[in-house]
Amino acid sequence: MNRDVFLKRVRTAAAAGRSYRVTTNDRVERAAGYVGGGPDPIARFAEQATAAGGQVDVVDDPAAGVARLLQICAQHSARECIAWDHPLVDRWSVRAALAERGISVASAGVLPGEDAATRRRRLLSADVGVTSVGFAAAETGSLAMIDDGGCDTVASLLPPVHVALVSHEQVVADLFDLFDALESRKSADWPSSVVFITGPSKTGDVELKLTTGVHGPKHWHVIVSRS
Amino acid sequence: MADLDTVARESTSHDGGAVDFRAREHHEFLVASRQALESANLQLALARLGDTLGQRNRDAYAAYAGSAAMRELARGIKDRTLAELDQHLEALEASVRRNGGEVHYAADAADARAIVLELLKRRGCRSVVKSKSMTTEEIHLNPALQAAGIETVESDFGEYIIQLAGQRPSHLVAPAVHLTVGEVAEVLSRHAPEPLPADATALAQFARGQLRAKFAAADAGITGANFAVAETGTVVVVENEGNARFTTTLPRVHIAIAGIEKVIPRLADLPVFLKILARAATGQTMSIYTSLLSGPRRAGQANGPEEFHLVLLDNGRTRILEGPLRESLFCIRCGACLNACPVYRAVGGHAYGGVYAGPIGAVLTPLYDGLTQNEHLPHASSLCGACQAACPVKIAIPELLIKLRDRLHEAQHGSGMLESLAYRTWGVLLRSALGYRVATWLASRALGRSQASSRWLRWLPGALGGWTSSRDFPAPARERFRDWWRREGDRAPATPPRGLDSGGRA
Q1: Does residue B337 belong to any structural domain of this protein?
Q2: How high is the mean pLDDT in each 10-residue block of chain B (506 residues)?
Q3: Which of B261, B286, B319 marks a domain boundary?
Q4: Rounded to an integer, what distance in angstroms lies between the CA atom of residue B426 and that of residue B284?
Q5: What does the alpha-carbon distance between residue A98 and residue A91 come to, in Å, rounded to a whole number?
Q6: Are B264 and B146 in a shared domain?
Q7: How many structural domains comprise chain B?
């Protein structure tokens, strides 16, 4: 339909509808809904993410985090991983550690000379997706994944196991804080995909019985380093 | 194009056979609800629904101290946004364009279907995956796509089951809740090389395998939108399975279809809704996946669609926006009112006949589909208020239902002579002390005496019989309070005899 006619119709209706506005309490403030992270946001994050069905390990340093990642890969007999190209993944020397165990690690992005079909096959056959996060929200135990250069959303979606590596400075207290952090990205380079993840893929569609791993990962691991 | 909106409604069986209300939209609330009450499987499923989702919703509100405040804030945002809706839509359009996407305007269902078909045709799309969307149900998109030879697959597990069973969703967030695990196994087994076990996990794994192949091959992904953020041009899709992520990540075209009421002005408004949406829907703190999708993939990005289209749908919404039922546009489709409603929990979603079921469906279906055809829906409520108490944006559903009853009465009876005479007489009697005394004396004689042994009247004469055909009427007291007082008043403080004056429950 013609855009201008459509919008004119909306304008007229919105104006007429103003006689039917409801009364709301304007004194309510956003602060009333602020939960925050408590005295130890990392502990709160772990508690909430666990409640959502995740397996969370809080470790003292990156080295312990990588050790835990290797354990998880061993548990799932992983042979192939896809990983983000992300500063934290580099800093924690994840690729070298995995390679040492004979686990191949490839970028979740497009490899040189790779066509779309080949890439898709490679992604679909990966055993574990290794990512970091944009932010982690303590209030809800959620991870915010921002898909821009190197942080491909497929790494947290296609493999049956997703392991997210989080450093303490990425943890924010409340969902409101998370959105404040996203605000700064709002202008020029607003990403095409931001996904909040709070648990393993889940459905209750048959008799309301919860089942995990229906489309996305069945196993959702988060490793948080306190330093 | 054939009028799919009418076809979807042609439920009355012309061949005289029984009608499957699970498969077709209809206007037969009375027949369909009676059938539902007689289905043991359905009754079991509905009992489970109230005990799980309904209870979890109440627990989640109680566990979150900020829930009352956030519900009030969310309600305020909806109200303010609707007051300037045209401006927010223009802002949304500008943002979507800035992100490299396109916005389309659909006046009605046929318009929306034509837009989607044209887009698919233009890009040579032969197969579509969909994530759960009530709006696409509303515009009857699937039959239109199939008629055009486009393979269309629902990817939400519940919707996938429903699609293969040839039925309609019966609940906003749990579309297949009316089916038992055995029935689901039977439906899916028809598409499996060997019979599948009646086990929820095994069935989900089967669907996962089937749907992965569909995701990988699909040309286009179609979704609804829980919210559309004007400021950033973002379509927000909330889900638990990950199928919406697949739908919006792998195919080369993404088409999102949203009612115009889904727009919220600012990114900062979104967390207010996210803090209450999942708590209302399933009692979760957050749903598993919340996708904020803002246009096609950017340069240097390896994932996401090459094209992004947002179809904004009116389809009767502006007509509601300008009137006294405007508040119904606040709905964020969480399903909490369904789980809370004693009527929904007795008759299930299919009885309501339209796309939207439960208390909010009893408001929306008459508004979108016509009041007189859906005359029973505004009455399918005891007005107990459980829906309003559960609603994350506190929609005054009972009040809206009463307004619809008013409107319906006006349409069906006008201001009837007899009725207005009755009320005028009542008015006269109540205005004078003598009139009141005579009237109450007569009532207590006529009704109280006639069935003196019971405090409930099981039968009323003439036009009043409509009341007693399905429920009892409280008998007036045998003795009026004024008579009792004259006799016993000095000997206080006696307990008045049971059933005095009110005649109702003591």
Answers
A1: no
A2: 60 56 94 95 91 93 96 97 98 97 98 98 97 96 97 97 95 93 96 96 95 94 98 97 97 98 98 98 97 94 94 98 98 96 96 96 96 95 97 98 94 78 86 85 69 72 80 78 81 58 42
A3: B319
A4: 52
A5: 14
A6: yes
A7: 2
- What pLDDT sits at residue B453? 60
Measured CA to CA in angstroms, residue B117 lies from A97, A175, B1, B138, B222 at distances of 50, 38, 11, 16, 12
Q: State the DSSP H helix or E strand holding residue B506, giving kind and residue range, or none if neither.
A: none
Four-CA torsion B447, B449, B453, B456, nearest 10 degrees: 10
Given phi > 0 = left and psi -120 to 50 = alpha, else beta, which region is B316?
A: left
Asked if A160 reaches chain B (Cβ–Cβ under 8 Å), the answer is: no
pLDDT tens string A154-188: 999 999 999 999 999 999 999 999 999 999 887 77
pLDDT at A79 over 50: yes
- d(CA B235, CA B224) in angstroms, rounded, equals 9
- The residues in B 379-398 lying below 8 A from A, measured between CB atoms, are 396
Instruction: Let me know if residue B342 belongs to a domain.
Output: no
Residue from A153, A206, A210, A218 to probe the interface with B (highest B Cβ count within 10 Å): A206
Q: What is the pLDDT of residue A7?
A: 98
What was the pLDDT predicted at B503?
A: 41
**Helix, strand, coil share (%) of chain A residues, nearest 5:** 35, 20, 40
Q: State residue B424's pLDDT score.
A: 87
Contact A33 B207 (CB under 8 A): no
CA dihedral sign of residues B353, B355, B356, B357? positive
pLDDT of B50 reads 83
Strand partners, A224: A58, A166
The domain in which residue B239 lies consists of 4-319
- pLDDT digits over A115-136, tens only? 888 898 899 899 999 999 999 9
Q: Say whether pTM exceeds 0.95.
A: no
The reported pLDDT for the residue numbered B7 is 59
The label of the residue with tokens 């009040």 reads: B399
Q: In degrees rounded to 5, what are phi and psi of residue B15?
A: -90, 5
Q: What is the dihedral of CA B124, B129, B132, B137, to 10 degrees?
A: 50
Say whether A10 and B85 touch across the interface (CB within 8 A): yes
Q: Give the end of a domain, one of B303, B319, B335.
A: B319
What is the residue whose two structure tokens read 């006006």?
B410
Q: Which residues 60-79 of A are in CB contact (within 8 Å) with B?
A: none
- Residue A169's domain is classified under what CATH number? 3.40.50.10420
Digit-coded pLDDT (tens) for B129-163: 999 999 999 999 999 999 999 999 999 999 999 99
> Do the domain assignments include residue A26?
no
pLDDT of residue B421: 87
A residues 96..115 contacting B (CB < 8 A): 108-110
pLDDT value at position B448?
57
**Which residues of chain B neighbour A122 with C-beta distances below 8 Å?**
none
Q: How many CB pairs under 8 A join A and B?
A: 270
Distance between CA atoms of A171 and A137, rounded to whole angstroms? 6
Give the pLDDT of residue B336.
97
Q: What are the distances in angstroms from CA B31 to CA A99, B37, B353, B372?
A: 66, 10, 11, 17
The CATH number assigned to the domain holding B54 equals 3.40.50.10420
Which DSSP category does B182 fall into?
Answer: H
A212 in Cβ contact with A57 (< 8 Å):
no
ipTM of predicted assembly, 2 dp: 0.98
- In the stretch 175-204 of chain A, residues with CB closer than 8 A to chain B read 175-176, 178-179, 182-183, 186, 190-204
Structural domain count of chain A: 1
| Residue A91 domain-assigned (yes or no) | yes
